[in-house]
Amino acid sequence: MKKKLFLSLFSLLCLHKIVAQNNLEEETKVQQLCLVWGFLKYHHPEISKGKVDVDELFLKLYNQLNLVDKQEEVNTIFLNIINSYGDISNNTNNNSSERDRLNFFENEDYNWIENLNFNKELTNKLLLIKNNYSNPKGYYASQSKLSKILNFDNEKIIEDFDFNSTPHRLLSLARFWNIINYYNVNKFLFDDDWNNVLNKFIKPFMDAKSKLDYDILKAKLVSNIDDSHAFYFPQGLYDSLFNYKPPFGTRIINDTLLISNLYNKDLSSKDSLRGGDIITHIDGKPINEYMENKFGSFFSASNKDSWNRIHQYYALYNSTDEVNVTYYSPMENKHLKKTIHLYESYDLDKQVKRSLDKGNEINTSKEVGETSLYINLEAITNKELKKISKTFDKYNGLIFDLRNYPKSIAGSDIAKYIYPERKEFIKVLFPTNIPSIGDYNADAPLKLIADPFKAGKKNNNYYKGKVILLVINSTISKAEYIGMAIQSAPNSVTIGETTAGAVMNIITIPLPDGDNVNFTGMTAYYPNGEVVQRKGLKIDHIVHQSALHPDQDLQLEKALEIINKSK
C-alpha cells in the first residue's frame, strides 16, 4: 500500500514537473509580445495605417497573455488579433518595385519569426505579412519628401501613464525598442545585438519598483544605441545621483581630471584646491575606472572620447556631500590625498557670474605665427569670411578651429574659397518608410535647388596653401558636417582628438510617459565609403592637450609646425 502511494505521489510530481516545464516564462511571453506587436504596428496592412490604437492593443494583448501559460494559447491570441483585422492574402500590388530600388538591407532581421516557438499557422501568417506589405505610407513612421527625415509625430503620450504599472513600463520598452529596430539606420553599428538588448531589459522593466528604478532603466536602455546625440538623463535620476557637486569645473585631459575653473573660490580654498590641480584617482580608483563603474551604463556615446566629454562635467557629482580624491598639485609639486566637500548649491563668484552673463569674447580671425591665419568657426559669419578671404593668398596656411559649435557659417560658405571645383564631400545612408531598409547614397534632399552633399564651385583662384582643421571630442553634429566639407579641400590636414561621431540630423522618439529620446537619423560616410558615424572624423595627427600645461594650445602649435614645414 505504501509502495503504491509512493508511486502515485512520484507520478504526480513528475507530471507536475512536465507541465511546469511546458509553461512559458513571463519574460518569454513579453518577448513575443514586443516582437509581434512591433511587427504588426509597422507591417500589418490595417494596423500600420493608424486605424488601431496600438498602445491600447499592446495593453490588451498583455492582459490576455497574462491569463495563459502555454505556447499554443499564445499562438491563438496572436492569430485572433491578426485575423480580427481582415484576411491577409498575397498582395499583387505590393511594394517590391520600391524595395528593389533600395540597396541597404544590413539592418533587416526577421529570423525571430521562424526561430521562436510559433506554430506553423502563425509563422506563415507573419511571413505572409512581411513578404507582401512593406508599409511605404506608414502612419506611425512617416518621412518628409523634402528632407527625408523620419518623424514619429503620431506616437501618443498616455495621459495617465503610471510607472507603477508593469504593462505601462513594458510599453515604453516596446515602443523605443521597435522604433530603433525598424528605423534607426545606424543599428548595424551597435556594439550589442539589438535582439539581445530586448531580452536583457524585459525582466528589469517588469521588476522595477519605483520611478527611480524606471528612470534608471530607460537611461540604460538608451545608452545601448551608442549615439552621442542620444543624451538622455531624466531629472529624477539626476537629482538622485548628482545632487551634490564641487565648487569648481573639471575636464578630462588624457586619463586625468583637471580642475579648470573655480566657481566659488572660498569653498574651493577650504579644501586647499587650486585651478590647475590634477585629480588622478577618485575613491581610490583611476579616473576612467571610477567613471566606468559609476556612469558606464547611463550615458549613450558614439565612442570613448565622446563618452569622456559627457562625463567630465559630472565626474565628481555625487549623492553624498563628499568624495575622496588623489591629486597632483603643480604648485607644491607633489601628490596629495584629500576629502573634497560637495554642495547642493552655492553662489557663483561675481567675476564668474559676470563672465557667464557676458559670454566669451571670441576673435573670429587673427594672424598667428608669421604666415598663418587662424579662423574661429564658432562665431564667424559668412560676411566676415568673405571679407577676410581677400587676404588668404598672403598666408601659407589657414587654420580653421572647429573645437566648438559653429553658429553662423556653413561648410559650403568655406568650400567656395578652398575648392578648385564643385565636388561631393559626403555620402549618406537614409532611412526609408520601409521598415529595416535603408537607401545608401540616395539623391540628396532639395538636390534640384542646392545639393547639400556637394560644395564648392569652379574656382581657378582657390586657396592653394595648407588648410588645417582643428577638432576635439566636443566637435559634434553640424560641426562634424562642416569638418567633412573642409577635409575635402586639397592640402587639408586634420589635427586633434576623436570627434563625437554623430554627424547627421536628429530624430526624436516620443515615449508613452511624455519623455523624448533623440538619435542620429542618418549615417554619414566619406565619399570613398568610409563610415563616420561613431568613428568620428578622420584625424591625420592625434594631439592631446597637456594637463600640466592646460593653457598651452598643443594642437594649434602642431598646426603652425606643419605650415612652417610646408613653406
CATH C-level category of the largest domain: Alpha Beta
Largest sheet properties = 6 strands, antiparallel
**CATH homologous superfamily (4th level) name of the largest domain:** 2-enoyl-CoA Hydratase, Chain A, domain 1
Shape: flat
Q: Determine the mean pLDDT.
A: 90
Rounded to an integer in angstroms, the radius of gyration calculated over CA atoms is 28 Å
Protein name: Periplasmic protease
Pfam families: Peptidase_S41 (PF03572)
Domain Tail specific protease: 345-544
Organism: Galbibacter orientalis DSM 19592
Describe the structure.
By secondary structure, this protein is of the alpha+beta class. It folds into three domains: 195 residues, no CATH class; 119 residues, Pdz3 Domain; 205 residues, 2-enoyl-CoA Hydratase, Chain A, domain 1 (Alpha-Beta Complex), CATH 3.90.226. The protein contains 20 helices and 21 strands. Strands 3, 4, 5, 6, 7 and 8 form a six-stranded antiparallel β-sheet that branches. A six-stranded mixed β-sheet has the order 9-10-11-16-17-21, sandwiched between helices. Strands 14-13-20 form a three-stranded antiparallel β-sheet, with no helix packed on it. The protein is flat and about 80 Å long. The N and C termini lie far apart (106 Å). InterPro entries: ClpP/crotonase-like_dom_sf (IPR029045), Tail-specific_protease (IPR005151).
